[in-house]
Predict the structure.
Amino acid sequence: MSNEIKVSDVHHHVTNYKAGFKTRMNSERSMLMMPMNVVMVAKIKGMITKDELHKAVETLRKRHAFLAVRVYFDEQDYGWFNTDNVPAVPVRIVESTAPDTCESLIKSEWKTVFPYETGPLVRLTLVQKVNDCELIVTGHHVICDGTSLTYLIRDILSQLGKEETGVLPPPPSITLETVPNPKKMKPVQKLIMKIISKKWNKAGIKFNQKDMNRMLNKFWKLNSRPSICRWELSAETTRNLVSKCRQENVTVNSALWAAFLSAQYKVQGNKPAFRKQAGMAVSTRNKLKVPVGECLGFYASSLSLKLKHVPGISFWDNARQVHKAIHKELDKTDIFRMLVTEFLPPTLLDSFYFCKYDGLDNSLARKMLKQLKWNKTSFGYSITNVGKVNIDTEYGSRKLEAVYGPLLYSDVNEKVVGITTVNGILTFSMSCSAENVNSEAVEKIYKQVMRIIESECSHT
């Protein structure tokens, strides 16, 4: 096999999946018309054929309802997920030994719009090399998060290994009924929401798939140079990191944050001010009244907090400060705060990036865009640590070597980091705009993070 890339798409004439699943879109509606494609990548020893992959994911549509959904709007413009008449999950096969093929394909996946009106909102790309392959799983953020796609990778491999995966119940929605002790809205807040809704509805602004395609095309013209860096710790270094964090009484997540903040400080400094602001993903998967389990779905919230490297103190003292700041913010932040969007017109939730990129001139949309801090680069880092995921490594003749992600591109976060631990190996992925962070700075940050972790955890 040469370095020349060979691509083939799988077009199977199959019966569309009809399970009668239907559920209303809630707070995730605000992401529907945004550049929010999530990618996870599995590095696999051994080969997979296109027919095997297609058959595996089609079988899994019985297990994961969101593998077979489309979106439609009702008379009140509310969005609904529905499994009726949804085509097969697209499967693409790419044959290439070029080292940067996977990164190029991930960028392409970010830029490729999902046809939400027809579905599905997931697609697969398999990069075949000589004796191994990389499976790229892409989903729209409205129906998945990094943990979801990691479970999906495991389930695909299980199907390939002829293992039974079973059927899961429909993914539960995050609503006022499923959230424990939802915060009640004050009368003045209800009044404000009523005024906003009346004013927005009077304007009669709505968007469709064609509008979204046009706006996202403008987005990618202005964000045309995303960059990706992926790396991993050895199994030994991963073990040493976990052991050292226990000794120092901090979480692995806090230590990793401290390492990235230190690297940012040494390579970029603490200015502009947004480099002292951090966005951290928080899972809501285990915080609902109803069990979520291993469902494919969007179960993520975020913390916005002030974090920075403090020179003159030890790495572990920095890690303890980060640990304290994160837990303080967790205690006071309502991670289900986006439920307030249930009281807003759904088309207003669609409007934010139309205001930012497509020339929509509306004061309400502008104010909400600013309130959400989506109007400019607001954070030095956004870090999503999926954590340790229990996945078998042996699947017949195939072996799972590593999982990378979640990989996301954001114009709000200068640097987006995804961290996953599978099979005792901790992997990193970092994406950013080459206009904002050049390749030299990316390499310096990556090497600095590795240097810090290896030096601080070499003796446990």
Summary: Residues 1-7, 9-18 have pLDDT under 50 and may be disordered. The first helix runs from residue 50 to 60. DSSP finds twelve helices and 16 strands in the chain.
